[in-house]
Amino acid sequence: MIEALHEILSADRVATDDDALQNWGRDWTRNFPVAPSAVVFPERIEEVQALVRLANREGLALVPSGGRTGLSGAAVASNGEVVVSFDRMNRILDFNPADRLVRCQPGVVTANLQAFAEEQGLYYPVDFASAGSSQIGGNISTNAGGIKVIRYGMTRAWVAGLKVVTGTGELIDCNRGLMKNATGYDLRHLMIGAEGTLGLIVEAEMRLAEAPQPQRVMVLGVEQFPDILKVLERFQRHISLSAFEFFSDLALEKVRAHRDLRAPLATPSRFYALVEFDESALDLATEAFEATVEAGWVADAVLSQSEAQARDLWQLREGISESISGYTPYKNDLSVKVAALPGFLQEVDALVSESYPDYEVCWYGHIGDGNLHLNILRPAEMSVAAFHEFGHDISPGIFELVQRYDGSISAEHGVGLVKRDFLSYSRSDAEIALMRGIKAVFDPNNILNPGKILA
Ligand code: MLT
Ligand code: ZN
User: Fold this and answer.
1) pLDDT digits (tens, 9 = 90+) for 316-336
2) Is the pLDDT of residue 356 over 90?
3) Which of 43, 89, 122, 319 matches a 20 to 30 Å C-alpha distance to 296?
4) What CATH class is the domain 215-321?
């Protein structure tokens, strides 16, 4: 197999040493075995096509790999697969100002696309804590969300065109950057969020937004969870918010300890909402804040007075995930309609605290778009394996609640290996059968990321 790979790629672009296999063979999850047989680094589309053809001929499985910051195990290679890293396909190819389109390779790091947009006086609005290492191909493959979804939507909203190598090695050019294109099925949208199971994304045309005004950030202390939703409703009444995030007191405690940050408010609260809005809406935001205090929902708040202070306040939310990673937490990424959030959170919280009263439960997330991150921290004395078992035991109960609330068991992290066996809590048998049919059309020999999303 290695010889066959060398016929496609120069020797320096085929790695089989243990360090490389361990590094490129996994994402941010830590509970799956990592055992690829090789890592390859194509530089051209034709090379990706040749790899796919080889995989079909020899029965090899390919795992596409971007910045490896995923949380669902979609980029993990556990069964001798060949990892196809896009690290060397990392160039921005051109920019079309009239259409505000950037054509780029899949390995472009998200932060580099953001910086490129800024150089053009524009804005790439999909943003999250791992933007410094995640890659555009991975963002598209997981339909990444993050902290600005309430205003700008998910990655899907910014993908204008995709070149994809399907499971048979064919190159398809989906939508070609058009704004309007009513010519039947839009295959581009099938590829977005497909986690590399239908095709390998080899080029993307990303749309850019107009540059935003300077932003202000406010962090508000809220004692009762349902009041956060009242605060959201009050702020949204007259303001188009850029972000509305939340975190619990425990999440704040962890991120402060990890990054040595000061408490945002003199009076601590059980929950905190982080609101971001345009500078021009400052008077409206001040009015909204006063109304929330008068109503008794908000105890205290802080408003950023500079860009540096806004960045510091954002750290309180964006640093949480990293600050708890040492606990190898049981992570969950759930969504329900915003209106259903208070009942849903209360029931999930009760389920966890009644069954496992001694565990630390950390809540945070993108509450403005109905997305809650539930993280249960592993007690220091418990092994990672035993805690993994606990996660397996508790998941069905949580997912039954998600189902009852008509929600999703994966809001933005994807399915991968982590949620695969639970897919039926969010998708009907008919939908799963159709998904299998689609997979068989694009990848008849099941060589693209086998075992991800669908068993
Ligand atoms: C976040 O919102 O911080 C990310 O989705 C990562 C996480 O959930 O840990
Ligand atoms: Zn998130």
Assistant:
1) 999 999 999 999 999 999 999
2) no
3) 319
4) alpha beta
Task: Check if the beta carbon of residue 151 is closer than 8 Å to that of residue 244.
Answer: no
CATH architecture of 2-85: 2-Layer Sandwich (3.30)
Which atom of ligand 1 is nearest the CA belonging to 318? 3
Paired tokens of 390: 């606990």
CB 110 within 8 A of CB 42: no
Rounded Cα–Cα distance for residues 301 and 293 (Å):
9
Res 72 pLDDT > 90: yes
Residues in the chain: 455
Residue nearest to atom 4 of ligand 1 (CA): 321
Q: How many whole angstroms from 413 Cα to the centroid of ligand 1?
A: 8
CB 419 within 8 A of CB 331: no
20-63 pLDDT per residue, tens: 999 999 999 988 999 999 999 999 999 999 999 999 999 999 99
Atom number, ligand 1, closest to the C-alpha of residue 366: 2
Per CATH, which fold does 92-210 belong to?
Answer: 3.30.465
Q: What is the pLDDT of residues 252-291, one digit of tens each?
A: 999 999 999 999 999 999 999 999 999 999 999 999 999 9
For a ligand 1 pocket test, name from 71, 325, 371 the mutation site with the most ligand atoms within 8 angstroms of its C-beta: 71
What lines the ligand 1 site, CB under 6 Å? 128-129, 320-321, 333, 373
> Which CATH number applies to 328-431: 3.60.15.10, 3.50.30.10, 3.30.70.2740, 2.40.160.20?
3.30.70.2740
Closest protein CA for atom 7 of ligand 1: 321
